[in-house]
Amino acid sequence: MADSDGALDLLRQWPVKVAEEILLAPWTVQKVRRSLTDLPDKLDELRAALDRTSTMIDRLLPELSELVVGMDDRFRHVEATVSELGDALLNLMGAIPGVRRALRPPTPPR
After folding, report:
1. What integer pLDDT is reported at residue 62 of this predicted model?
2. Which of 42, 100, 102 lies closest to 50, judged by CA?
3. Which pLDDT does position 68 carry in this prediction?
4. What is the model's pTM?
5. Predicted confidence (pLDDT) per residue in 9-65, tens digit
6. Where is 67: in which H helix or E strand?
7. Which of 29, 62, 73, 100 has its CA 20 to 30 Å from the CA of residue 89?
8. Local structure of residue 108 (DSSP, 8 states)
9. Where are the domains of the chain?
């Protein structure tokens, strides 16, 4: 019953809604014309902004690439240094008698 009441309300309101749209049509058409008149200017602004963005990206990419390569070189250097330090520490531990026995892994808690 509630569905049929809703449908009847919509049917009663339909002529009013159509009349409102007809009355608003001149303003709607005027608004569309104004928007269409502004559209070429907006498209030109968008194209110019995209050109500036593209130019900026083209300029920044080589700099970013150099920074990434530089950071990669630094990480490789740190990795090599840590590896050498680890090897030296293991050699030192092997040369000192009794160090290996003293450096047993910790026993897990019970």
Report:
1. 92
2. 42
3. 93
4. 0.43
5. 888 888 888 898 888 899 999 999 998 999 999 999 999 999 999 999 999 999 999
6. helix 2-95
7. 73
8. P
9. 2-92
Q: Is the pLDDT of residue 3 over 70?
A: no
Q: HSE on the CB side for 45, CA within 13 Å? A: 5
**Amino acid, res. 64:** L
CA 83, CA 69: separation in Å to the nearest integer?
Answer: 21
Cα 11 → chain centroid: 48
SS3 31: helix
pLDDT the model gives residue 95 = 81
Half-sphere exposure of 89 (CA within 13 A, CB side): 7
Tokens at residue 99, please?
Answer: 């160090």
DSSP 36-64: HHHHHHHHHHHHHHHHHHHHHHHHHHHHH
Q: 108 vs 3, 73, 101, 105, CA distance in Å?
A: 70, 39, 18, 9
Instruction: Report how far residue 90's alpha carbon sits from residue 50's, in angstroms, rounded to the nearest whole number.
Output: 58
